[in-house]
Amino acid sequence: MADVVVVGGGVIGLTTAVCLAEVGHRVQVWSALFPKRTTSAVAGAMIGGPVLAEPRESAVRWQRESLEIFDALAGHHGTGVSLARGRLVSRLGAGLPPWAAELPGFAPCTEAEHAGFPLAFWISSPIVDMPTYLDYLVDRLCRAGGDIEIRTVEALAEAAPGADVVVNCTGVAAEALTGDEQVQPVRGQHVVVENPGLTEFFYEGGADREWVSFFPHDGRVVLGGNAAPGDWNLDPDDDQTETILRRCAAVEPRLANARILGVEVGLRPGRPSIRLAEEPLDSARLIHCYGHGGVGVSLSWGCAREITTML
């Protein structure tokens, strides 16, 4: 018997379950996939940078709260979180945006460091090796008394009997489970290569469909990226793989001959605005938390804390 059933075993669901279990709730996570097979495992993932998600005021707060926790986790063995220096760049204009100088570790790039982009500057940010981090969250949940059941959920009402609260963290599956037509998949593909000695990340902001990014982790580098709204295809695309490799190697030549370890595809849960809201579900309370697009990791702790406060 559980006080709370969290439906969805990605980073939003696991983080919510951890927060609730650590304040004393009996929590069970229902997930169709093992956490390391969810879309969350495919993320880069960088925590800092500007917040563009809606609702903007809430998203800024969620990221700020999450950043505090990721900063604390950085460097702790087994979390997968580390603090790294890296470049944010853009093709959309050369003038520094007003928020740039407020970012941790901000410094202008030299002309050579622009890598052909009109806008470029350095920041410091936590980056997350997601497979390791998801293992850390699972372990932390279990130590707090929660558990995970691998099961397919056809309707959220299945979780209501015997639970006081159901939390819907199902990502792109929320479209079918809630009938929310605003949810759509945003397909993304990454190429994972052996790390040739990189310690600094690189991220191109402002691009809609294709951009250059690489995030170095222990033994591997995650290269990206792209976005294809409405595309449910989970099969790797060879042309996209070649394009990603070519663009990243143009910025960092050491990546040109790095051994490919894998190609990963995930479906970001796209929605015009993140949905964090409550409604009744039979005799239980139902809290929705989905629609984070590509920023689920960076907002995860803030959203989880808000849900914990609601309960």
Summarize the structure in short.
25% of the residues lie in helices and 31% in strands. It is of the alpha/beta class. Strands 3, 4, 5, 8, 9, 10, 11, 12 and 13 form a 9-stranded mixed β-sheet that branches. A 6-stranded mixed β-sheet has the order 6-2-1-7-15-14, with helices on one face.
> What would you call the quaternary organization?
single chain
Q: CATH superfamily name? A: NAD(P)-binding Rossmann-like Domain
Radius of gyration: 19 Å
- Indicate the mean pLDDT: 95
Number of helices: 6
Total strands: the figure is 15
Strand content: 25-35%
Order of helices and strands: EHEHEEEHEEHEEEEEHEEEH
Considering DSSP H and I runs of 4 or more, what fraction of the residues is helical?
25-40%
> Could you name the CATH topology?
Rossmann fold
Give the class from helix and strand content and strand pairing.
alpha/beta
* Form type: globular
What low-confidence regions span 5 or more consecutive residues with pLDDT below 50? none
The main pleated sheet reads as: 9 strands, mixed
CATH architecture: 3-Layer(aba) Sandwich
Question: What is the number of domains?
Answer: 1
State the distance separating the first and last CA atoms.
18 Å
